[in-house]
Amino acid sequence: MTGAFVDPRVAVLYASQTGNAESISHSIYEAAVKRGFDASWHVLDDHEAFGFNALRTVVFVVSTTGDGDPPDNSARFWRVLRKATRGSATAYAHLRFAILGLGDTNYSNFCNTAQRLDKQLLAAGATAFYPKGLADDATGMEEVVEAWIEGLWPALARVAHCAGGPPGDDAVDAAADALAGLAVGAEPAPGAEPAPGAEPASADGGGAAHEFQPLLLDFRPMAALKAISGAPRVPEPICAAVLPDADAEKRYWSAAPQLESLACPPWHDGVAAASGAADEPSTPFLARIASAARITGPEALKRTLLLEIELPEAAARHVRGRWHAGDAFNVYAPNDARLVAATLERLGVGARDARRPQLLASADPAIKLPAHLQRFAAAPASLHDMLLWTADLCSPPRKVLLRVLADACSEPADRDRLLYLCSKQGPAAFDELRRQRPTVLDILHAFPSCRPSAVRLLELLPPLVPRSYSICNAPHESEAVWRVAFNVVEYELEVVDPFSSAEDPEDGAGPRRVRRRGVCTPWLEALARRAAPAHVLVALRPNLNAFRLPPPPLPDGAPDPRPVLMVGPGTGVAPFIGFLQQRAAELARAAQPADAPLTWLFFGCRTAAHDFLFRAEIEGRLASGVLGRLSVCFSRDPEAREEHGAPRYVQDAMLSRRDEVAELMLDRDALLYVCGDAKGMGKDVNDAMADILCGYLASRPARARELAAQLPPARAPAGAADDAPLSRAQALQLLALWTAQRRYLRDLWA
Ligand code: NAP
């Protein structure tokens, strides 16, 4: 029951880590306004400014990150929601809501943010006016998202006033009808002509310095189609470019030369202002790359760099006492400048025009600009800088982008192919396109007559979001320096040419190898190589999981006595290097010489010779007794495995010491920290822990019963007969309980 109250207003709220939920929520907000709802759009963390507690009709779009964590830009909101709903079954009885969750079933706790939000709001008396949608990136989220949005409108019209009149329950309007069957080979849409004054695009990139990668897609199934249907609607333009007045232009040009030398957005002061109150610990600031070194050998599979980032005095003061070993920080990185230049060239924007300052205005004054473009409404920037710093040119394309690009083609063949890619008939081709991880430049080159305006592209691409890295030192050691270890992300994809013949090995058949690079790490590497000092824009990232060592419990300064197990293969070891520094400092500072509580590190690498990260530091801690035990695994080094009797992976090492691990967790109140890859290692270690607990408790039924009594009744999977004293489902519940009690902490990275 949603009640009879019809709200004059609707709020569309989002929490987004990579910009997807932000883009989707903006499209919902825009469509709501166009349909006649009085809609507003906000990020959850601005809850005070938009008065969340007074809202009555809300549409949430929320994503999930890491190990089921909410996005950073909802951290403040969660704290307030928890407080407001604690023990109250009516705190939000006035609220009607709908939730669209974005997630990925490759990771544990699928769509946990949406699920948690739903549960908490319902428990506090709120009503869902429309069933929640959970979109899975593993299988392609677009279908769920589109269908959910389509069904939202009639549901929303029942609880909120719509000046355009309520749509019918089937939510089909004229625009959808027009799109339902697009004839193959139809004339290009009006407005598809190349931009005035632009040269026709050459197929080879027109001498652009950045190489595009040809896409290998099979459009042959199109031949059998009479019509293409189910492509998304074309969103109306959001932004219009405006030239600034003479004074603003003069100010712009006088500031420009000083900014060229900094590796940060020209509006970096504005980034700090836009990120929240200036006294927030996560306020961005410029910091110098003080040193850089490669810490993997030349034959290692990955190139791992260790950078030292020196905090300027004011910033070090600002974050003093607010950061700890285990925290991470964000780096604001640009797109590859050559990619930006080549993209602008491909769009027909000449070098002069690309550097001219422009302002962005809302194409419809009733609709707010997307958050990452709002600053350009007040202060001009060049198209080049806007594309360089704010639009993600490498994110997997969304169907709506392809739909708009289709309308920007002057050749029917290009238009049809783009329509096919985003249609109901082309999901296989769409998946293949995304699998090839194309840049927007690759897509433009694959459809030579496609010539959207740069501003249209800018508004359709997701925001370029900062990248996070763990700090691998402790403040006791160096208060004004953050050390960071990361792999330079460069990899090759195998792409099968659909036109090659597998039977003829001479025709170049077999997969082609396509090189791809990350956005931030190759850029940091290039900066670190420069002779001139480099500054980057960074910000402390809120540590939502409290992934930290507990502080000394007593005033004598002696460390927390509980044993600590740390599991971190590869660069997942980074925060533990800081933990060990912290522990060393605590032991040194203790009033009485303290016995070091047990610390046990499980580290994994490929070979002993090439990628045993921080080896000297780790072995030094072992020698000094700060680290009590060390288990190192070598996944691709049979000799080292034999020599050290080491298993392949960290979870294998834990299983090989299963009784000790179980005893520490069950009988000695140990803390377990896991850091690294969420998809593989994080899940596997969790499974290994469940096995360890079940196995250990199999011969201790009394202890198993005692533990089971603390757990909610477990629902056994259908058909599973599990007579163990502690079933596997109960073991998983126990792990979840320890997570809630902050004894089992995971810092998992997607
Ligand atoms: P990596 O080099 O890919 O792998 C390290 C070791 O883990 C290798 O021996 C690898 O073996 C093994 N491994 C592969 N699959 C595994 C599994 N399912 N279970 C256990 N071990 C497995 O590690 P990495 O690239 O450094 O990745 C670490 C993760 O930590 C990344 O997700 C990264 O984002 C994250 N992280 C980064 C930072 C940072 O600040 N840069 C901080 C914390 C965490 P094989 O390859 O031989 O199979």
TrEMBL record:
One of its GO terms (molecular function) is FMN binding. It holds the Pfam family FAD_binding_1. It is an enzyme of class 1 (oxidoreductase). One of its GO terms (cellular component) is cytosol. Keywords: Amino-acid biosynthesis, FAD, Flavoprotein, FMN, Methionine biosynthesis, NADP, Oxidoreductase, S-adenosyl-L-methionine. It comes from the Eukaryota. PROSITE patterns: FAD_FR, FLAVODOXIN_LIKE. Residues 10-153 form the Flavodoxin-like domain. Its cofactor is FAD; FMN. Residues 282-550 form the FAD-binding FR-type domain. SUPFAM superfamilies: Ferredoxin reductase-like, C-terminal NADP-linked domain, Flavoproteins, Riboflavin synthase domain-like. Residues 186-203 have a biased composition (Low complexity). Residues 186-207 are annotated as: Disordered. InterPro entries: CysJ-like_FAD-binding, FAD-bd_FR_type, Flavdoxin-like, Flavodoxin/NO_synth, Flavoprot_Pyr_Nucl_cyt_Rdtase, Flavoprotein-like_sf, FNR_nucleotide-bd, NADPH_Cyt_P450_Rdtase_alpha. Its EC number is 1.16.1.8. GO terms for biological process: homocysteine metabolic process; methionine biosynthetic process. PANTHER family: METHIONINE SYNTHASE REDUCTASE, NITRIC OXIDE SYNTHASE-RELATED. This is Methionine synthase reductase. It comes from Coemansia javaensis. The lineage of its organism: Eukaryota, Fungi, Fungi incertae sedis, Zoopagomycota, Kickxellomycotina.
